[in-house]
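Feature request, filed as a ticket because there's no other form

It would be nice if the structure record came with a short human-readable summary line next to the tokens. Right now we just get the raw output. Example of a typical job, pasted below so the devs can see what we mean:
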Amino acid sequence: MKWIAGHYEWVFPRPVLIMGIVNVTPDSFSDGGRYLSTEAAVAHALTLAAEGADLLDIGGESTRPGAAPVGEAEELARVLPVFSGLAGRVSVALSIDTQKPAVARAAIAAGASLVNDTAAHRAPPEMWQLVATTGAGYVCMHSQGTPRTMPTAPHYDDVVGEVRAFFGERLRRLTQAGVRAEQIALDVGIGFGKTWEHNLQLLAALDSFRSLDHPLLLGVSRKSFIGKLLGVEVAERLPASLACAVWATQLGVEIIRTHDVAATRQAVRMTEALLARA
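Raw output as currently delivered:
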């Protein structure tokens, strides 16, 4: 299995890819405001790269449950200077975390090789056509609702089956838009329009998505379902986040998205070493 993002190419099986999170926002649930300035965001991205991140996911609009939308101009003003500031300073792949095709287009022009799309449930194909024409990698994430409406009583008859059906339908739409299979990774969207029980069901069934034959990306780092399940605040959620990363590695997930690159990389590499000898 191969994943292509611009001039980057990864062939699986291989060590799990670690994607570091760079939130250039004032209101993200975990680190909102800490890296809002360009200088702070660039410095943080360089730190994550030095800690062993294989990819850096840069976003200028919070997608936490209940978050208000950000205008296109503001989102561009937040993220584009960060891409410019990293130009020539990192060798890892840069990702743009956005729902807006115009922001994705500008970020790709500024050096992004990958689009992490939290609104892959949309109907218009503009984002997918952009990915097709640029050759960027694409993360297709499942979500129910928008950040503002996600906390409102998410319902599924069969969350695993419905997410799987969503991926099947979206893969057909992506193909119709001209996106090659090798460009696409899948993300079950932990926390995006799901209760903590839905999240646990998806985590328990991650290996059931492997038959779709696309790399799987998992983002659980410090998320609210951990707090609801274990009664811990954001700053205390690293151990549970690492447990989920280890579990995902055991079930064959190829990409882990995290705030804590060094700790996650260490936990994942140890898990891989044990699995190789089991």
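Something like this underneath would help us a lot:
The radius of gyration is 17 Å.
The longest helix spans residues 159-176.
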